[in-house]
Write a structure and sequence with these properties.
It is a single chain. The chain contains 23 helices and eleven strands. By secondary structure, it is of the alpha+beta class. Strands 1, 2, 3, 5, 6 and 9 form a six-stranded mixed β-sheet that branches. Helix 9 packs antiparallel against helix 10. The longest helix has 36 residues. The chain is globular, with a radius of gyration of 28 Å.
């Protein structure tokens, strides 16, 4: 068959699936986007990117690392030009960069460097640095993690020693493990870095503080004297995160002005005295909640992309069951496929509503900070830490599960799934290792339980622990399958699970030789208890989001089905927990399983329309398997011919390495005598 020939005319293979939908897809798109204005904005930005040949991304996985990185630089510059030429607002510019869908130095500049200046620099410092950053006259990165320390920020080794004679700090990397390692944008692009280092003045170590340090010349981009900077090398996956220049950085007694210490929270005077400002250190909580909310929303988007690919391809793919001339069965009709993919579909929606609630939480935290009321901050920190950990872990695993659900073709880079996974999985580590974050949640929950007896009321998402006695003694009252559609029954089940797992850990810790010894010994169980609490939060916020009028034919019913599916699939997954705590009986578990099967059947005719409501363009998905028209096989065949290996029929190396084998010309074997 001649190269590139298509096997049939292109048609919409998913038209029949879309006709089955029992709800108004446009109205669901509005819900997913967070309103009509957001939907229209997203569609405009997505089309700008999709229609611009300069922003194509289908060739990324075939490029060498240098070619890939240069192409990323070109796209970043082109995007910046578009933002100026089209006079885009900040919101429009952010969405445009999202749809370009290529991680690069700009992500760290806008996402970490600029917020760090806003949060930690004085007004005078901001007036100097922010105008330069806003117009990209300087490009910044965020240099915190070191070769030997990541999550343990207090253990960072880089030193910033104040010299009162010159009124400067001396930045120095004292050991190899003190090398800054991983900051995005550092390797090849950034001109400046927010560097976290141990502040030493007057022969005293005051711990880790932030400094702004120029690392490259603004004239020829060469590293400045005393600075060693480079890229750390190729990372996991084709394409993926390799568009980012994650870097290493060492200082050999580099002198910087005293004013380059970010001094909003503390400062060093001209004579070397360390002075804390009267600005509450708790102000950092606002930025923390904002970043974690963004991570949760990103989780919903990445998971929705993977689910879109898997659902559409499962509707196109047919295997087995052909009888009497009938077609084979759609893979999406198999229960083994549905029980794996539909809960992930429900999870994507759950995380979307969770992200919207976190927007409210951010506003609430800011309001408390402005009122100098810090009573809710500890709970907000624990809650958002856990939700970051839960959503990123589930999303990373979910993308990989979607790849498996697509069978062998899912392993092709043209499926879009390998690169999607490689690009997303770092989220499980950056902004806090997920296991460590869950242990922070557990520590807060154990402390909260210990205070319940003294009359101190738990706050926020932990408020249910005020009813600890009731949750420890009352069991589930479900008697028929429909009872599992009652939000109260669902919430009480998840509250009891979390409360009892936490209480059990607290009891065992109390019996240990010391609290820290008990915490260490029970760390695995504590992670499980923290996860249970976080899943309760997601379930409760999904339920709360639906407790209002949602316009659009059938939209609310579909969301309720997904909410129930999400909750019951978690119960099905963690049956061990519910049995261990004695909350559910075997009969109630059987009823939950039966209701779950009913929900799978209800979601099935709406599955393709539900992923259509995510409103991802084919360009943004970057997947042949997830094409909107379902014309998979024609385009898989066409894509194969684009591979450079197919540029010639006979491979390079045939004469040297294949022909000698076929012609028995490798030479006679040496005698062993």
């Amino acid at each position: 068959m001649e190269q590139g020939r298509l096997l049939s005319e292109s048609v919409d293979f998913l038209a029949d699936e879309r006709q089955k939908a029992e709800f108004d897809v446009y109205s669901m798109k509005v819900v997913w986007a967070g309103g009509k204005d957001n939907l229209q904005l997203s569609e405009r930005m997505a089309q700008i990117v999709a229609n611009d040949p300069a922003l194509r991304k289908d060739d990324r996985v075939r490029l060498s690392r240098p070619e890939l990185f240069k192409a990323t630089l070109r796209k970043a510059a082109h995007t910046w030009k578009l933002i100026h030429d089209l006079s885009l607002t900040e919101q429009e510019a952010t969405r445009l960069r999202d749809f370009v869908d290529e991680t690069c130095y700009a992500d760290l500049h806008w996402g970490m460097f600029v917020p760090a200046l806003k949060g930690q620099a004085t007004e005078e410092q901001q007036s100097k640095w922010l105008p330069l950053a806003y117009k990209l006259a300087i490009i910044g990165c965020y240099a915190q993690t070191e070769l030997g320390h990541g999550s343990n920020v207090k253990g960072l080794e880089t030193k910033a020693t104040f010299d009162p004679y010159t009124d400067e700090f001396i930045m120095h990397t004292p050991t190899q493990t003190a090398t800054k390692w991983w900051p995005g944008g550092l390797g090849k692009v950034a001109t400046h870095a927010i560097v976290y280092a141990r502040l030493i003045t007057d022969n005293h170590d005051y711990g880790v503080h932030a400094f702004i340090v120029q690392i490259r010349s603004l004239e020829d981009h060469q590293p400045l004297p005393g600075i060693t900077v480079a890229d750390i090398g190729v990372k996991f996956g084709n394409g993926g995160y390799n568009t980012m220049d994650n870097g290493l950085l060492q200082f050999d007694h580099v002198w910087i002005p005293r004013e380059n210490m970010l001094m909003r929270l503390a400062k060093v005077t001209r004579d070397g005295k360390y002075v804390q400002s009267d600005v509450p250190r708790q102000l950092g909580y606002g930025a923390m909640v904002f970043v974690r909310r963004s991570i949760v929303l990103d989780a919903s988007v990445f998971l929705s992309r993977a689910v879109t690919i898997a659902v559409r391809y499962s509707a196109v793919r047919r295997q087995f069951g052909a009888q009497d001339g009938n077609s084979e069965i759609q893979v999406l009709d198999y229960k083994t496929q549905q029980i794996r993919i539909f809960p992930l579909l429900a999870t994507a929606y759950a995380y979307r509503f969770l992200g919207e609630w976190m927007a409210w939480l951010y506003a609430d935290v800011i309001a408390h900070l402005e009122a100098k009321d810090y009573s809710t901050l500890q709970e907000a920190h624990a809650c958002t830490a856990g939700l970051k950990a839960l959503t990123t872990s589930v999303t990373a695993d979910g993308i990989e599960e979607c790849r498996k659900l697509c069978g062998g073709h899912g392993y092709l880079c043209s499926s879009g799934l390998p690169e999607l996974y490689a690009c997303y999985v770092p989220a499980c580590t950056y902004e806090g290792d997920n296991t460590i974050l869950l242990l922070q949640v557990a520590r807060y929950l154990i402390k909260t339980i210990s205070q319940v007896g003294s009359g101190k009321q738990p706050l926020g998402t932990a408020a249910y622990l005020a009813n600890l006695d009731q949750l420890m003694t009352e069991n589930c009252i479900v008697t028929k399958g429909e009872d599992w559609l009652n939000p109260i029954a669902i919430l009480k089940s998840f509250q009891a699970r979390s409360a009892r797992l936490c209480a059990d850990c607290a009891n065992q810790i109390a019996k240990a030789s010391s609290p820290e010894a008990g915490f260490s010994e029970l760390s695995a169980e504590l992670v499980g208890a923290a996860r249970a609490h976080c899943e309760l939060v997601v379930v409760s916020k999904f339920i709360e989001s639906l407790d209002k009028n949602i316009p659009g034919r059938g939209v609310k019913q579909q969301l309720q089905n997904l909410c129930h599916l999400y909750a019951l699939s978690l119960i099905n997954t963690y049956l061990g927990d519910f049995l261990l705590i004695g909350y559910l009986s075997r009969k109630q578990i059987a009823l939950a399983k039966n209701q779950l099967q009913i929900l799978l059947c209800q979601v099935r005719p709406n599955a393709v329309a539900l992923v259509d409501a995510f409103n991802h363009t084919d360009h943004y998905l970057g997947s042949i398997l997830g094409r909107y028209d379902g014309d998979v096989y024609n385009h898989l065949y066409k894509e194969a011919w684009k591979d450079p290996l197919n540029a010639s029929v006979v491979p390079d190396g045939y004469d040297e390495y294949i022909r000698p084998i076929l012609k028995q010309q490798l030479g006679k074997p040496r005698s062993r005598i």
